[in-house]
């Protein structure tokens, strides 16, 4: 991967950028809009939001103010837990679509596998996909057992599973399962919100490659073929997080980072959260 414009081809043929901007905790209105404008200026084309982030209107504002054709952007949003169920999801989607001010959403995700609901939610996503209102549908925070249950019923295989993923949580079993099924893994909290930047293995690599720990981690995502969506509202960080296409990690360094895995979650465990 040598350029920010490179994409992964999802299992339905849709192309998704390997790097995107996460906007969780970016305030609605100017904060999120300015972050997106800066990101687009330096070459990002993919934005990851969700109804629960309460900033879809600001995302929509940015989409309409920037001078990039809509078809060149890749917009992801998600249905929140209390909006799940068939009819509820169709309604939630329409609300998100209107806030974003777009005809079609590029990727719509089931945010968490809500017990007793996520199969109906998935049926609603299949309907939205069939009706051409979304270009691709996927899931988030699904473990193998959730995917197995989903695939037993599903007519459409999810294109993406967006999960917590960083050197302390690589989820190898889930990653392999997703690869087998043609489901692209996507990393949330790729930077652990900065919690592991002081780790000696990372700082050593940082010196070796002349890159920051954040850039090392984000490049490692790419080497492992994981889509990554670091969040920042700080222009210098938005830019730095995209400067990961001009170097490559040696295989042994990729393995070294892989071996940092401790199955450690900073976020919720999908089996306990919902
Ligand atoms: P990240 O790991 O992306 O870290 C973001 C934090 O790190 C922010 O506080 C940001 O600060 C800071 N930061 C960003 N870049 C740098 C840098 N180069 N150096 C130092 N600090 C930096 O965490 P997120 O949890 O936000 O995850 C990314 C995205 O994943 C979210 O925004 C969201 O889109 C998605 N997500 C999805 C979830 C799901 O359940 N599906 C759950 C959680 C996240 P600042 O903004 O002030 O620059």
Describe this structure in words.
The structure is a single chain. The chain is α/β, with parallel strands linked by helices. It has one domain: TIM Barrel, CATH 3.20.20.100. Helix content is 40%, strand content 15%. The protein contains eleven helices and ten strands. It has helices at residues 30-42, 56-65, 86-100, 118-130, 144-153, 172-181, 200-209, 213-223, 235-240, 251-258, 270-273, and strands at 7-9, 15-17, 21-22, 46-48, 74-79, 105-110, 134-140, 160-164, 184-188, 227-228. The strands form two sheets. It has an eight-stranded parallel beta sheet. Helix 7 (200-209) crosses helix 8 (213-223). The longest helix has 15 residues, at 86-100. It is globular and about 55 Å long. The model has no long low-confidence stretch (mean pLDDT 98). The chain binds NADPH dihydro-nicotinamide-adenine-dinucleotide phosphate. NADPH dihydro-nicotinamide-adenine-dinucleotide phosphate is lined by residues 22-24, 48, 111, 140-141, 162, 188-194, 214, 229-234, 237, 240-241, 267.
Any key phrases for this structure?
TIM Barrel; binds NADPH dihydro-nicotinamide-adenine-dinucleotide phosphate; 40% helix; two-stranded antiparallel ribbon; 274 residues; alpha/beta; eight-stranded parallel beta sheet
């Amino acid at each position: 991967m040598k350029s920010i414009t490179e994409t992964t081809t999802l299992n339905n043929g849709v192309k998704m950028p390997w790097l995107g901007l996460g906007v969780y905790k970016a305030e609605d209105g100017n904060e999120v809009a300015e972050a997106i404008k800066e990101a687009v200026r330096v070459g990002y084309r993919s934005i990851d939001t969700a109804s629960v982030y309460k900033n879809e209107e600001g995302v929509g504002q940015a989409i309409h103010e920037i001078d990039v054709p809509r078809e060149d952007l890749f917009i992801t949003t998600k249905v929140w837990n209390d909006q799940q169920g068939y009819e509820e999801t169709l309604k939630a989607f329409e609300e998100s679509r209107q806030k974003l001010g777009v005809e079609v959403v590029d990727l719509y995700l089931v945010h968490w596998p809500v017990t007793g609901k996520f199969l109906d939610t998935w049926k609603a996503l299949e309907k939205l996909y069939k009706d051409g209102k979304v270009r691709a549908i996927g899931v988030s925070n699904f473990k193998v057992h959730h995917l197995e249950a989903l695939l037993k019923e599903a007519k459409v295989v999810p294109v993406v599973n967006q999960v917590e993923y960083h050197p302390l949580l690589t989820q190898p079993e889930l990653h392999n399962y997703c690869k087998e099924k043609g489901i692209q893994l996507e990393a949330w909290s790729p930077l652990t919100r900065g919690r592991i930047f002081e780790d000696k293995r990372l700082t050593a690599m940082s010196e070796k490659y002349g890159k920051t720990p954040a850039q090392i981690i984000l490049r490692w995502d790419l080497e492992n073929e994981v889509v990554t969506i670091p969040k920042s509202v700080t222009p210098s960080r938005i830019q730095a997080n995209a400067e990961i296409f001009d170097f490559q990690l040696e295989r042994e360094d990729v393995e070294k980072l892989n071996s940092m895995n401790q199955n450690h979650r900073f976020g919720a465990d999908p089996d306990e959260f919902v």
